[in-house]
Design a protein that fits this description.
It is built from 7 helices and 10 strands. It is of the alpha/beta class. The chain has one domain: Rossmann fold (3-Layer(aba) Sandwich), CATH 3.40.50.2020.
Length: about 210
């Protein structure tokens, strides 16, 4: 879910403005998974723009307090959620940890970096939700050390059905500041795309694995 439609559109405007999101229905990108995609999203770019970075940090904090209350710890998912999570933790005056995709193969073999204790409540920060697999690996890592994950908050979600099903099965509540619907609405309004592109973009979200131009 998105907490506030107006702020979702504002974030969509920012992402399009700085080209953190690129829409190319006629010349699709190829994801690591092999899927052809009319959209490419790199929310790390928001960190380079102070006004946008601040707005997103404030929206993160409001979404966390509104939906989950104040947790004991903020956790960022490596790599995209690390800087965002640290900014949010600083704003809320909370401890911060980050979660690797896998445990290190050397040293202390940590997957969770930073100090965390059994029984603490945690809100997880992500920059982007696609299938939800990497996000849930982070949630599982926290649960395995005895933490209570109150929920996960991301900047953006594609709203794939597979992600919705995966998070529901894992009993993990998710909140996104912006989603695919808001992005397409804002992109059409600002002429980043044409009305003729909308149908193809919607079909991709419904079945990204089998989508073709």
């Amino acid at each position: 879910m998105i907490p506030h439609p107006d702020s979702a559109l504002k974030i969509a405007e920012y992402l399009l403005q700085i080209k953190a999101v690129k829409l190319q229905p006629a010349k699709p990108f190829t994801w690591v998974s092999g899927w052809k995609s009319p959209i490419y999203c790199d929310n790390r770019l928001t960190l380079s723009f102070p006004v946008i970075r601040t707005y997103i940090r404030q929206q993160f904090c409001e979404a966390i307090i509104e939906n989950f209350g104040k947790p004991d710890v903020i956790a960022g998912v490596a790599t995209g959620g690390v800087a965002q999570g640290a900014l949010v933790a600083q704003e809320l005056g909370l401890p911060f940890v980050y979660i690797r995709s896998d445990a290190k193969k050397h040293g202390l073999t940590n997957q969770i970096e930073g100090h965390i204790e059994k029984g603490q409540s945690v809100v997880v920060i992500e920059d982007l939700i696609s299938s939800g697999g990497s996000s849930l690996k982070a949630v599982d890592a926290l649960r395995e050390v005895g933490c209570t994950v109150k929920g996960l908050v991301s900047i953006f979600t594609y709203d794939f059905k597979v992600a919705e099903t995966t998070f529901k099965k894992a009993k993990c509540t998710t909140v996104s500041l912006c989603n695919y619907h808001a992005l397409i609405e804002q992109a059409l309004k600002e002429n980043y795309i044409n009305e003729s592109d909308v149908d193809s973009l919607k079909k991709w979200r419904e079945d990204p694995e089998n989508w073709t131009v």
